Structure formats: structure tokens, C-alpha cells
């Protein structure tokens, strides 16, 4: 859990979050096109949630996030999530329960993160891209966390009546 924090630029620090909670924002909301992303919040029987580290070679390599990825043409959020989690972490998910939707405006991309809670899955976890995995609870111990992950920790804090810092750093 002691990853060397990657370099973060001033532009990255200014990454802007908008809580949308709606799938109605047009696909060219604002001045830049939006990339749709399906993100899985796996919650186990002990109410822990799964974080994975971003693999080497991707933007924000080494940052901790909830696993997921970009929608391919014609896919629904649930279909993309099922495909991504199978490809990246080796499991087959049961139902994906739509939770929150946020926009993140990064220097490299403007993304709409469609977070879904997942309570059931089959198969063994296998980090197929060399990621690391951690079952976490609040406060999160893995550092650093991706900017787009922080709102999720705040939603968990609200749900769980958790007071205090949700993560380190
Ligand atoms: N998976 C995931 N992506 C997130 C989260 N928060 C967040 O801002 N993002 C952003 O959403 C985008 C997801 O892209 P990705 O690189 O994971 O997707 P992918 O696996 O399809 O990428 P690829 O095209 O490199 O194969 C990235 O810009 C990433 O920074 C999160 O919690 N999980």
C-alpha cells in the first residue's frame, strides 16, 4: 500500500469534478467530447469495497481507483462493466446497480463516470494487467487515489455516517 506517488501536474490538481447524477448530459456537454466510462464498486459481505491500482503505461499509472473502463460502441454501462471486469480482473459480475454519475474534466479527457454497485460475482480475482488489488474500508489506506475516486469515498462516508478524512494524502 505504499506506492510511490506519481508526479502530478498543476493541471491535474485542477481536475474539475461535477456531480451530475443524470445520464441526460449531452455527449458534447461543454466544449470537449465526453468519454463514457463504466465503473464497478464491488462491495463484499463485510462491506469492504475493492480498489485496484492503474497499470503501468496508462495515464495516472499507480493511482488507486475503482475498476472499470470506457464503453465501446453500442454497449450499455452494464455490458461495458461486465466486459471490463472480466478482461481486467478476471471475474464475472452479477447485477450492476446504477449508483451515481459524475463528470470529471481532466487535462487528458473529459469523462462521465457511471458508478455501479456490484454485490455478486463469480470467478477468482486475477489482475490481468499487472494491477494490485485491495479490499478497503474508510479511511482508505491505499495511496494515492485517483481524483475521480474521491467523490465515491464521500458517498460511502455519507451512507455509513463516517466522519473524518476518507483517505490519506
Ligand atoms: N476505471 C476507472 N476510471 C476512472 C475512475 N475515476 C476516474 O476519473 N477515471 C477515469 O476514467 C477513464 C477510464 O479510462 P481507462 O483508461 O480506465 O479505461 P480503459 O481501460 O477502457 O482504457 P484503455 O483505453 O487505455 O484500454 C480514465 O480517464 C480515468 O482517469 C475510476 O474510479 N475508475
UniProtKB/TrEMBL annotation:
Keywords: DNA damage, DNA repair, DNA replication, Hydrolase, Magnesium, Metal-binding, Mutator protein. Residues 10-29 have a biased composition (Basic and acidic residues). It is an enzyme of class 3 (hydrolase). It catalyses: 8-oxo-dGTP + H2O = 8-oxo-dGMP + diphosphate + H(+); 8-oxo-GTP + H2O = 8-oxo-GMP + diphosphate + H(+). The keyword Metal-binding applies. Residues 33-158 form the Nudix hydrolase domain. One of its GO terms (molecular function) is 8-oxo-GDP phosphatase activity. Belongs to the Nudix hydrolase family. This is 8-oxo-dGTP diphosphatase. The lineage of its organism: Bacteria, Pseudomonadati, Pseudomonadota, Betaproteobacteria, Burkholderiales.
Amino acid at each position: 500500500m505504499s506506492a510511490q506517488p506519481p508526479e502530478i501536474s498543476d493541471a491535474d490538481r485542477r481536475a474539475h469534478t461535477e456531480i451530475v447524477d443524470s445520464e441526460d448530459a449531452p455527449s458534447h456537454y461543454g466544449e470537449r467530447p465526453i468519454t463514457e466510462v463504466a465503473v464497478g464498486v464491488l462491495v463484499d459481505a463485510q462491506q469492504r469495497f475493492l480498489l485496484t491500482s492503474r497499470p503501468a503505461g496508462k495515464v495516472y499509472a499507480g493511482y488507486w481507483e475503482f475498476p472499470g473502463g470506457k464503453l465501446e460502441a453500442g454497449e450499455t454501462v452494464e455490458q461495458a462493466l461486465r466486459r471490463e471486469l472480466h478482461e481486467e480482473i478476471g471475474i464475472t459480475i452479477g447485477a450492476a446497480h446504477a449508483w451515481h454519475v459524475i463528470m470529471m474534466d481532466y487535462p487528458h479527457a473529459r469523462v462521465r463516470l457511471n458508478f455501479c454497485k456490484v454485490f455478486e460475482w463469480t470467478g477468482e480475482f486475477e489482475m490481468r494487467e499487472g494491477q494490485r488489488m485491495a479490499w478497503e474500508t474508510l479511511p482508505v489506506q491505499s495511496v494515492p487515489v485517483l481524483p475521480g475516486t474521491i467523490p465515491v469515498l464521500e458517498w460511502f462516508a455519507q451512507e455509513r455516517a463516517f466522519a473524518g478524512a476518507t483517505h490519506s494524502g
